[in-house]
Amino acid sequence: FSPGLLVVAGSFAAFRLLNLGLERLVPPPPSARRNRWKWRNIWTSLAHSALPDTHSLSPCRFYLHPEMSNDLVGTHPPGAHSLVAVSVGYFIEDFVDMLCNQKLHQSWELLFHHSVVIICFGIAVLLHQYVGFALVALLVEINSIFLHLRQILLMANLVHTTCYRLNSLINLGTYVVFRIATLAWMTRWLFLNRQNVPPATYAVGTVGMAIMTPMNIILFYRLLRSDFLK
């Protein structure tokens, strides 16, 4: 039994309660009332991405703990393990929310994405190893802020606004830096450290990168085509 599982369970419950109460906190505009669960879902995802400890402090952690740059397997700062466990709880909650409210053919890509993240982060939580590697992966959440804001603006029918245009520019810029570049760095790290990673864990990480990288490149093309090429 790992105490991290308690953090995962607590995180799941907290994000579930937040999801259920968000419609009162942020009432959906008329254009979003036909899809109320999606409105709540996006705001819940934004809440996770915008948590200061989820992403923005990750670069600071590497600055304050430079030893992590050399050892992403066994070295991690205080609180990092709980941070990864909180994210696992969120991804499980989001997985359940989509599974219950959206048709499978509409959500299979995100469900697949969440499954990979839950497995990889779950290994870090259970083994108390690779937490530093998971912290690198959480840099992706910096871009997720603008990705979720884009969805909110779309649902609020605010596409033809300066706010949407500005967010689109920041979204693509942070996408390249914090998604594509981060995944490329993680793939390189796995390749260079394959001798120091157990075969089973290396296989999970390699498969995860092989799945996530093309998915993110395809999503980048969709965003580019939707917001700039039309």
TrEMBL record:
Gene Ontology BP terms: membrane assembly; phospholipid homeostasis; plasma membrane organization; regulation of membrane lipid distribution
TLC domain segment(s): 34-230
Subcellular locations according to the entry: Membrane
Signal peptide stretch: none
Membrane topology of the entry: Multi-pass membrane protein
Spans traversing the lipid bilayer: 133-149, 169-191, 203-224
PROSITE patterns hit by this protein: TLC
Record has Zinc-finger as a keyword: no
GO cellular component assignments: plasma membrane
Keywords for the protein's UniProt record, in alphabetical order: Membrane, Transmembrane, Transmembrane helix
One of the Pfam families matching this protein, by short name: TRAM_LAG1_CLN8
Main location (coarse class): membrane
Record SMART domains: TLC
The organism's place on the tree of life at top rank: Eukaryota
Protein name, entry field: TLCD2 protein
